[in-house]
Amino acid sequence: MCDWSITSAVVGEFAERLPGPDESDWRVSWLPGRVFTRDQALAAMELVELLYDPDRPNSPATQATIAAAAEILGIRPIDAAITLSERHP
User: Fold this and answer.
1) What is the pLDDT of residues 2-32, one digit of tens each?
2) Number of alpha carbons in the 13 Å side-chain half-sphere of residue 80
3) Neighbours of 41 (CB within 10 A)
4) What are the Cα distances from residue 22, in Å, to 18, 19, 37, 58, 82?
5) pTM of the predicted model over 0.70
């Protein structure tokens, strides 16, 4: 992670800062057509890793973290899982 790019170590997804007057807008590869804040971009990348990391336990704590990250993005966890499964069958 750097000031302008966030990449996943688990799956081939990324977020990148968009050029602009204040450089506060971000795009997320697996949520095309939307513009995010940096905090939302971080949540999107955390969410993708939570959903794809085979070593992460499927615990209530993990499920709560998934729900919180999805809420920051304004999506349901199931919709995130569907979108990602379509991108990475």
Assistant:
1) 688 999 988 899 999 999 887 789 999 999 9
2) 25
3) 25
4) 10, 8, 12, 39, 33
5) yes
